[in-house]
Design goal:
binds 2-hydroxyethylsulfonic acid; alpha/beta; seven-stranded parallel beta sheet; two-stranded antiparallel sheet
Length: about 260
């Protein structure tokens, strides 16, 4: 009796939050996972805890992403079943009038160009597997603007359009394009990074909210999508905590 070879995945942004949780979850589900991010110390910890293979990769660098492709060729024989694009995030909450263009550039570079760069480089390996998935982690910020959000709204809306165009371009090929758009997720770093390391401001984002989503909640949805029979495509999944009806409509309980 032959045993089917494990499915293979690359997860970007795997040093923390949703990327880390997704890499760990897919490894626990029996996938061979190459978890990539910029921070080698965190990757080493992930590897020791989960058995994921790891590689330091900067999605904003052509050279670094070419090295990722070489590693996929070595490790997986050039056949990749899932590319999970998580690297990205938000920088700042300035209004358009106060826009910090370096932050806007940074968000475009990681969320949009980073995802394009990695996807373009790994598409041959996804094709070669004949059972490919491209997951793009966008956000509800791609669906509705909010004050102070324009830079992040624009970057995530750009990534959403990347997903939609790619799905059309790959129609007829055995590659699913899956967009997962979370609302309020409490992770160790998302708000802290966005708010420049201001811990009190980061904690206030979740103040009084009953159970914001966790990184593991999002990893569950991604795992469901990539483990589903391959003719079933969750092309866009929006996930919010029960307490959040829309970006601006969040039930908060204070002092109860
Ligand atoms: C996170 C959702 O509301 O902070 O991607 O933009 S929000």
């Amino acid at each position: 009796m032959t045993t089917a070879a494990p499915l293979t995945a690359v997860v970007t942004g795997a040093s923390s939050g949703i990327g880390r949780a997704t890499a760990a979850r897919l490894a626990a589900d029996g996938w061979r996972v190459l978890a990539v991010a910029r921070r080698g110390d965190r990757l080493a910890h992930l590897a020791s805890q989960t058995g994921c293979e790891v590689l330091e990769v900067d999605v904003t660098s052509d050279e670094s992403v070419a090295a990722l492709r070489a590693r996929v060729d070595d490790l997986f024989g050039g056949r990749l079943n899932a590319l999970v694009n998580i690297a990205g995030g938000a920088l700042g909450v300035e209004t358009v009038a106060e826009a910090d263009l370096d932050k806007w550039q940074g968000m475009y570079d990681t969320n949009v160009l980073g995802a394009v760069r990695v996807t373009r480089e790994l598409l041959p390996a996804l094709r070669a597997s004949e059972r490919g998935d491209i997951v793009l982690l966008t956000s509800t910020a791609a669906q509705a603007a909010y004050e102070g959000g324009a830079g992040y709204n624009a970057a995530k809306a750009g990534e959403h359009m990347l997903a939609d165009a790619l799905r059309l371009e790959l129609n007829g090929e055995p590659i699913r394009v899956i967009e997962v758009a979370p609302g309020m997720v409490r992770t160790e770093e998302f708000s802290l990074v966005r708010l420049g390391g201001d811990r009190a401001a980061a904690d206030a984002v979740y103040d009084g909210v009953d159970r914001p989503l966790t990184a593991e909640d999002c990893a569950d949805v991604i795992a469901y999508a990539v483990n589903a029979p391959h003719h079933v495509v969750l092309d866009l999944v929006t996930i919010r905590p029960l307490a959040q009806a829309a970006n601006h409509k969040v039930a908060r309980h204070r002092g109860l």
